[in-house]
Amino acid sequence: MGEFSAVRNKTAIVGAGYTPALRHAQTSLAAVAMDAALNAIADAGLERGDIDGYVGTPNGPGGASPYPDGVGQISAPYLAAALGMRDLRFSVDVIGLPSSALEIAIHALCGGLCNYVLMLRAMYNPADAQRTGGPGLRPAGPTQFTLPYGVTGGGPQFAMGVQRYLHDYGAKREELFAVVDAARTHALLNPFAYWHGKPLAEEDYLNARLIYEPLCLLDCDLPVTMAGALIVTTAERARDLQHKPAYISGFAGTAPGRETVFEVSGVDRGDVDVAQIYDGFSPFVWYWLEQLGICETGEAHTWCQNGRIKLGGELPINTAGGNLGEGHFQGFGHLREGAVQIMGRGGDRQVPDAKHCLLGIGQPTSSRSRHAIMLSAADE
Amino acid sequence: VPIVRGLEPPYAVAQIELEEQAGLRLIANILDCDPNDVRIGMPVEVTFEDVEENFTLPQFRPASS
User: Fold this and answer.
1) Whole-structure pTM value
2) In Å, how far is A160's CA from the nearest CA of chain B?
3) CB-nearest partner of B29 from A133, A140, A149
4) A135, B29: Cβ pair inside 8 Å?
5) What tens digit of pLDDT does each residue of A270-292 get?
6) Are strands A90-93 and A53-56 parallel, antiparallel or unpaired?
């Protein structure tokens, strides 16, 4: 057992709450955030007073919200006041990925700082949202090298990388449909997904407007308003709660030479039953699968074909729809669905007897931070 | 500092590796070329685009030779 295996199965996700993905906010974000938080607490079979830890990720993709606390984002103090939880023993707002928040929750629990952590992510997409750049932006600092050339955000930068991938590995943009198809098919089984009830035919995908060639509109996730919450606790406490826990068996970065999530968790790649892979843009799933060693470099574009990543296939991916099917949730939906699958509570989209769920959270491109996580059913 | 102009799509954005320094890449548009004809690996040369007064951008176009 390596140095970081110390976290193996020490903590577990024991409750999940979420709200439907709405294209635009109908209310302040506080309303949906409170719903998700209270749902998660109730789902774990706990009372508000049991919660003594909080880890939030208040910021949206563009940084701090211009709207007031409670309207456009939910800070830890706001949440604590709104829920009447003023006596939290551990409370922190994380600027970063939902997986970074989970990492802090794990360590707070392992360090004995608190017993039950509420994790919350609430995304706000107001009716007047302007999410991409364009005319009117002023280049400053590093953006003087990108903005004047029409590179206004992540999309154009990632698109160049995808173009290179297609070139180097003989892949075709049409092969990305397998990723989008899995997300959209699974979203049909998730009533909270934005694309629930809206099936996507291959022809419609292929005819969709190109946004950043080779990426089309449907390769990009959709900004939404939604909230999700999780309850995380120690393995000892998890055993006494009402649902089967989703133990956090592995947590790792992806840097070469470091312990992999498979080494930390002791779970082999072949034993993974289901995966939740961050898909802010569809090709991220290819990159993640290759970086995790699920398939060889340059092979993900063919590996994903023929239903392999759909429910019923060899490795179902993004069983709640992921970002592409559920909505732009920056990986929190992946965490939540991973827990739901391991808890055996996926309903129509449950992978039978799912024992190990692999998660890849974050952008799998060179300079971005990201985490690989394993959730497991048995506390072995 | 000038406000970013609105580019009319379609336009080609590329990372250009400099012959003078391998591994150093610039982002720029490929001018004087149909975006559909831009290919990975095609040789290009620098050109300077005067966007407005006191605002000139280094750009690239297909190499002349």
Assistant:
1) 0.94
2) 7
3) A149
4) no
5) 999 999 999 999 999 999 999 99
6) parallel
